[in-house]
Each structure stands twice: as C-alpha cells, then as structure tokens.
Amino acid sequence: MLKHRGFPGRLPGTDFQFTIRRPNPKGVTAITVRERFRDRRPPDRRADTGFMKALWEAFGDQPFERGNLDAGRLSWLFGREVIAAEDPFDPESYDALLVINLDVARVSFPDVFGG
After folding, report:
1. Residue 90 and residue 112: Cα distance in Å, rounded?
2. pTM of the prediction?
3. Per-residue pLDDT for 95 more than 80?
4. Between the CA of residue 76 and those of 5, 72, 89, what are the distances in Å?
5. DSSP character for 66?
6. Strand, coil or helix: what is 19?
7. What band does 55 get if pLDDT is binned at 50, 70 and 90?
C-alpha cells in the first residue's frame, strides 16, 4: 500500500480522517458511490471540501493511486468528482488508479478551484 507522504491525515481541528495508517488485515475496504444530500451537516461539507482541496493540491489533474487514502472519504466523492482512471477498475485494491473529474469538481467545489 502506497503511503502518500505530505498528504494531510485528517481535516485540521476535527476527527474527519483523510488517510489510513496501515492496510486493513481483514481485507481492503471497497470504494463505493455514496449519495450526498443537500441537508448534510456543515462539518461534513467542510470535510468534503477539505479532502477535495488536499487531492487537488497533491495530484492536480493527474491520475493517482488510492494507496492509503481513506475509502470512506473517497466514497463521498467517487463517481462524481473522483472517477476511475483505469478499466477495469477494482474498488477493493490499494493500487487502483483514480483521477479528479475537473468539470464536475469545479461545479461542486468552486472554492477549491478559485471560482
């Protein structure tokens, strides 16, 4: 499992986790598509924004390996702002390649992309 050095471990001042420390001994947690509803709590929205900002600063528009990025946090963005960069895609692999879908991400998180 690739560890993304320099990537924030969590949203500062909160317990919203962005990375994991070690592989899950019971098996890799799958990345799934989670529906984000309009009535989500403001702290959850800040965590999504903070995670997208960290992804953008770390990887930009280039494909990146899932590695030690938290599956739960990725799942809130997966299928919309973050998409598979390979076919076939294995949602249960630490080696899976992902990429930011810039068109969708700019609409969903305008503060991250400056507009």
Report:
1. 28
2. 0.91
3. yes
4. 22, 7, 17
5. -
6. strand
7. very high
The phi and psi torsions of 83 (rounded to 5 degrees) equal -130, 165
Q: Which helix (H) or strand (E) holds 107?
A: helix 102-108
Token code pair at residue 65: 């390996």
Report CA-CA distances (Å) from 108 to 38, 46, 63, 114. Answer: 12, 12, 19, 12
Do strands 64-65 and 82-84 pair parallel, antiparallel, or not at all (unpaired)? unpaired
Q: Tokens 């990375």: give the residue.
A: 19
Q: With beta carbons less than 8 A apart as the criterion, state whether 43 and 28 touch.
A: no
Helices (H), 7-89: 42-59, 71-75
* Residue percentage of the chain with pLDDT more than 90: 77
Say if residues 100 and 55 touch (Cβ distance below 8 Å).
yes
